[in-house]
């Protein structure tokens, strides 16, 4: 993160469905809207039928209820809530379609030249794709602009309506100094993660996409981070 240098890379431009890593872009837009004063974390967000019916990983939101925006963002960051993503998109964008236009506009602005998004949560959609390089670009800018977001992404558990769910980022529990960022999975492309850890003044980011199992995803990510920290230790200019 200090130098922006890519220490290791393989197949960084292969397109894959982004899965729930998509939510990093949705959270980016939400944090930007809060910073610009367009919305407030305390704003009550009314849950639509569309949001309440959204499947996959979720907070189990009830249509018709009102939830503070900050609570929805926490659900997106910690337990990858697809229903919360739809509710946030509707609230900030006016509707999901316009919010997705904002997502693609931001992706273009950031230089994510090999990405296109069709929804705010990463559920499978024809024509939706990204690359490891583009996710790295997104994650770097997200953490630079909103470093406080790690307060959410580093939480291992989240409870809503007496339902406690665990963060799917196993590195938070097993890898020293890991404090984020986001996992994802869809059948079409496998298991993804954009992970970050900080030691001393050095923060590293690792992106692994298309792993066949969660265990392989975790193992390969830990190997990347280990190698990266070793390279920085041997040559401090790298950090």
Q: What can you tell me about this protein's structure?
A:
By secondary structure, the protein is α+β, with helices and mostly antiparallel strands. The protein has one domain (19-238): Beta-lactamase (3-Layer(aba) Sandwich), CATH 3.40.710.10. The protein is 42% helix and 18% strand. It is built from nine helices and seven strands, in the order αβαβαααααββαβββα. The chain has helices spanning 22-35, 49-53, 69-79, 82-93, 96-110, 132-145, 150-153, 171-174, 214-234, and strands at 44-46, 66-68, 157-160, 163-166, 178-186, 190-199, 202-211. It has a three-stranded antiparallel beta sheet, with helices on both faces. Strands 1-2 form a two-stranded antiparallel sheet. The protein has a two-stranded antiparallel ribbon with strand order 3-4. A hairpin with a 2-residue loop joins strand 6 (190-199) and strand 7. Helix 1 runs parallel beside helix 4 (82-93), helix 3 crosses helix 4 (82-93) and helix 4 (82-93) crosses helix 5 (96-110). The longest helix is centred in the C-terminal third of the chain and has 21 residues, at 214-234. It is globular and about 55 Å long. The relative contact order is 0.18. The model has no long low-confidence stretch (mean pLDDT 96).
């Amino acid at each position: 993160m200090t130098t922006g240098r890519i220490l290791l890379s393989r197949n960084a431009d292969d397109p894959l469905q982004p899965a729930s890593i998509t939510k990093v872009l949705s959270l980016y837009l939400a944090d930007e809207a809060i910073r610009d004063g367009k919305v407030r974390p305390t704003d009550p967000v009314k849950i639509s039928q569309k949001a309440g019916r959204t499947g996959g990983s979720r907070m189990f939101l009830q249509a018709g209820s009102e939830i503070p925006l900050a609570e929805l963002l926490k659900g997106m960051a910690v337990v990858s809530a697809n229903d919360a993503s739809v509710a946030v998109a509707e609230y900030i964008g006016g509707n999901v379609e316009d919010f997705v236009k904002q997502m693609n506009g931001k992706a273009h602005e950031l230089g994510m030249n090999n990405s296109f998004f069709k929804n705010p949560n990463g559920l499978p959609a024809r024509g939706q794709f990204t690359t490891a390089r583009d996710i790295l670009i997104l994650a770097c800018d997200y953490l630079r602009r909103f470093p406080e977001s790690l307060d959410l992404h580093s939480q291992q558990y989240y409870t809503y309506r007496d339902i406690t769910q665990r963060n799917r980022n196993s590195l938070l529990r097993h890898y020293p100094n890991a404090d984020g960022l986001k996992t994802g999975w869809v059948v079409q492309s496998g298991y993804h993660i954009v992970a970050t850890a900080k030691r001393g003044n050095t923060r590293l980011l690792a992106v692994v996409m298309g792993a066949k199992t969660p265990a392989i995803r975790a193992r390969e990510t830990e190997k990347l981070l280990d190698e990266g920290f070793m390279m920085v230790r041997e040559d401090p200019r790298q950090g």
